[in-house]
Structure formats: C-alpha cells, structure tokens
Amino acid sequence: MKEWTRVAALEDIPRLGARVIRRADGDIAVFRNAEDEVFALHDKCPHKGGPLSQGIVHGKHVTCPLHGWNVALFDGEAVAPDKGDAKTFAVKIEGGAVYLQI
Q1: Which one of 7, 13, 22, 51 has the fewest CB atoms closer than 10 angstroms to its CB?
Q2: Percentage of the chain with pLDDT > 70?
C-alpha cells in the first residue's frame, strides 16, 4: 500500500498555480485552484511532454504552456478533441499540510 507523504503547506502552493515535487521517476505537479482544491499530476503533458506545472490553471483544468492542450486536474484526461492522459496522484489536506499518496 502506498503511504501518504507530506509535500507542502497549502499556503506554499499559489492559487491558480503549481509547485513541483522533484522525483527520480518523474516530477509531480501539485496544483491549487481558486477554490483551494488541490490536485497532483505527473508534470508532463500527454501531447508532447510539456511541463504542466507552468500552465494556466482554470477551474479544474490546466492548459499546457507549449501547445494549449487542456488537461483535467481531477483525472488527468485531455479535454476532447485531444486524447491522452497524465498520471494522477491521490491528494489530501490535513491541518493545512498537503499530502500525496506516492
């Protein structure tokens, strides 16, 4: 079973932005939307591998900065007509801290 790992304080993740968690097996982008919901995706667009963490967060989606693909933060799926997905990671917030299940 995967363990919960504290990765940041909620206040350290900018609203409508992201923080990158560097890992040997691929970086993870932790996003925070305007409603203070937090999501985590592999920091790689399913299209050409662009850094999703540098994209624009809107609602529950992020727009890749390279080619404008929209990716759903809640399930990692590209918005139609585009196809593909970014791996998602379970997230929880406890006591103002953000935890990922990795």
Answers
A1: 22
A2: 99
Domain boundaries, position 10:
4-101
**What 3-state class would DSSP assign to 82?**
coil
d(CA 62, CA 57): 4
Q: What is the CATH number of the domain that holds 9?
A: 2.102.10.10
Q: Which 8-state DSSP code applies to residue 11?
A: G
The total domain count for the chain is: 1
Strand locations in the chain (E): 4-9, 17-21, 28-32, 38-42, 56-58, 61-63, 70-72, 88-89, 91-94, 97-101
Using alpha carbons only, what angle is made at residue 62 by residues 93 and 97, rounded to the nearest 5 degrees?
Answer: 15
Q: 5 is written with which tokens? A: 């790992």
Measure the CA–CA gap between 66 and 45, rounded to whole angstroms.
Answer: 9
pTM over 0.90: yes
d(CA 84, CA 49) in angstroms, rounded, equals: 11
